[in-house]
Amino acid sequence: MRVLVSLLACAATASAFLLPTPTTRPASALFASTVGAKDIVDTAVDAGSFKTLATALTAAGLVETLKGPGPFTVFAPTDEAFNKLEAATLNALLADKEKLTSILTYHVVSGRVPAADVLKLTSAKTVQGGDVAVAVSSTGVKVNNANVVATDVEASNGIIHIIDSVLIPGAVAAPAAASKEVGKSLDR
């Protein structure tokens, strides 16, 4: 009986990390103790898997903005997503406030856009000014080429959808190609 209960608990936990489909459990269930109680920045920091994003937001001077009233929808890349970028590229971005701000604001959409509404979109205008492509398929949702891996993390000033790659303005390419595209744009 204990083995069965343990297996069921593991299966329930694992199902929360599947690519989102209209029936996937929202990530807000994983953050139940803080749902809506904290702003976007504090919610992401408390999750523990957005350290690089928090560092980048600080370097770009965007922390106070994303702690503001909003509402915002953030497609938040995890630390693993940032690790897909070459170290030299990431370090160069952290040192270039203008390019870093452009990339980070490309992950933010004005307003609160829950997963149910994202599923109806084909694109979304970011606060950076560019559009991100949204594609829904039987395997999940993509924003440009990033997979949405968890949805609807509620914050007091918006909502977070977790993605597995960093979005690069003007680059709708595979993560490795996107990393090279960032490197090219830094050379300009």
Automatic annotation (TrEMBL):
<dbReference type="InterPro" id="IPR036378">
    <property type="entry name" value="FAS1_dom_sf"/>
</dbReference>
<protein>
    <submittedName>
        <fullName>Beta-ig-h3 fasciclin</fullName>
    </submittedName>
</protein>
<dbReference type="InterPro" id="IPR050904">
    <property type="entry name" value="Adhesion/Biosynth-related"/>
</dbReference>
<dbReference type="InterPro" id="IPR000782">
    <property type="entry name" value="FAS1_domain"/>
</dbReference>
<dbReference type="Pfam" id="PF02469">
    <property type="entry name" value="Fasciclin"/>
</dbReference>
<keyword id="KW-0732">Signal</keyword>
<feature type="signal peptide">
    <location>
        <begin position="1"/>
        <end position="16"/>
    </location>
</feature>
<dbReference type="GO" id="GO:0005615">
    <property type="term" value="C:extracellular space"/>
</dbReference>
<feature type="domain" description="FAS1">
    <location>
        <begin position="37"/>
        <end position="167"/>
    </location>
</feature>
